[in-house]
Design brief:
alpha/beta, Rossmann fold, 2 domains, four-stranded parallel β-sheet, 10 helices, about 55% helix
Length: about 190
């Protein structure tokens, strides 16, 4: 079975923790991330709108680093496909990116905007970032834990131990945190 392919909606690229977790898991090969220029533009616009203290040049550098880290992630659905999507016009480009790239998932925290009755016939399922991550970790626990450990070791401001990083996940990724803690508590056979 091939790796999961998932379009990351702009809202899951808003927070640093969420972005770092998803990008790191894709770079590590746990899934193939996809996005369009419009998704990245929406993420950038919303970050600058809601987090006025963020330097636009630093944010652009972050976006450029994402594109360098995952050069195959960029997909551009044709306008005709976007126009044919059966969901609201503000999210049609995201679903079209999923269809265009062969993604089985749209990772979004606005799951309600991607009704299963409209997305399933296209072979796409919307999952929250927390549900997507927790299901991935359940499917590949040891490989995923290695990636989590790598992320924790990279953290510098402030430095975080693996346990502290797992604790930090609780605010945005409570199910993921729960899955990790259960796996850590289960003795290896």
């Amino acid at each position: 079975m091939g790796r999961r392919v998932a379009v990351l909606d702009s809202d899951v690229l808003f927070g640093y923790l969420s972005t770092d977790l998803l990008i790191s898991f894709s770079v590590a090969g746990h899934f193939q991330a996809r996005w369009s220029r419009k998704i990245l533009e929406d993420a950038q616009r919303n970050i600058l709108l809601h987090r006025r203290h963020i330097d636009p040049q630093r944010l652009q550098s972050r976006m450029d680093a994402m594109l360098r880290a995952l050069p195959d992630a960029l997909v551009e659905p044709p306008q005709e496909l976007i126009d044919s999507m059966p969901i609201g016009p503000s999210d049609a480009h995201v679903l079209a990116a999923a269809v265009c790239s062969g993604s089985r998932f749209v990772v979004t925290n606005n799951v309600r905007d991607f009704p299963a009755a409209l997305c399933s016939p296209l072979g796409v399922r919307a999952l929250s970032a927390d549900d997507f991550m927790s299901s991935m970790i359940r499917a590949q626990p040891s490989d995923c834990f290695d990636t989590i450990s790598d992320i924790a070791r990279r953290r510098r401001q402030p430095p975080r131990s693996v346990e502290e990083f797992i604790h930090d996940l609780g605010a945005s990724f409570p199910r993921t945190q729960h899955v990790i803690r259960r796996l850590l508590a289960t003795p290896s056979n």
